[in-house]
């Protein structure tokens, strides 16, 4: 296999991994995503090292740039999806806090918790 084919294989692995992470985001499987992110970081290192050592023709360089653009778009879509989820969770958290404050403000206290003004027990 040529050096470019090896690099292309790494890009395809990265692309498949990004798609897999995207589906996990939709299913909200965040613990599984963290394992995949660790693998993705190692794969990025391998890609960077392969790019440094691979001598590309002009045509191969164009293909590489196209693959990188596609990967960037996929990563950006994943980031946007996570940001939307984060905003939704933040909104729900604020609503819950406000409900808790209202409930706490109008909470009735039981007689056992109230203070006694006169002690009639002797």
Can you describe this structure?
This protein has 122 residues and is mostly helical. It has one domain. The longest helix has 48 residues. The protein starts with a helix and ends in a 17-residue tail after the last helix.
Indicate how many domains the architecture comprises. 1
Mean residue pLDDT? 87
Q: Structural class of the helix and strand makeup?
A: mainly alpha
What are the low-pLDDT stretches, counting only 5+ consecutive residues below 50?
none
User: What's the number of helices?
Assistant: 3
Overall strand count: 0
Strand content: under 5%
- Apparent shape: rod-shaped
SSE pattern, N- to C-terminal: HHH
List keywords for this structure.
122 residues, mainly alpha
């Amino acid at each position: 296999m040529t050096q470019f084919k090896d690099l292309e294989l790494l890009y395809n692995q990265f692309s498949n991994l990004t798609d897999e992470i995207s589906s996990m985001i939709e299913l909200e499987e965040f613990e599984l995503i963290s394992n995949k992110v660790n693998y993705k970081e190692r794969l990025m290192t391998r890609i960077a090292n392969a790019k440094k050592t691979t001598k590309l023709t002009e045509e191969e360089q164009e293909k590489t740039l196209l693959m990188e653009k596609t990967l960037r778009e996929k990563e950006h879509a994943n980031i946007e999806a996570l940001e939307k989820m984060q905003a939704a969770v933040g909104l729900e958290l604020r609503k819950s806090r406000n409900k808790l404050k209202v409930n706490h403000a109008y909470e009735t206290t039981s007689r056992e918790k109230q203070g006694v003004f006169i002690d009639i027990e002797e």
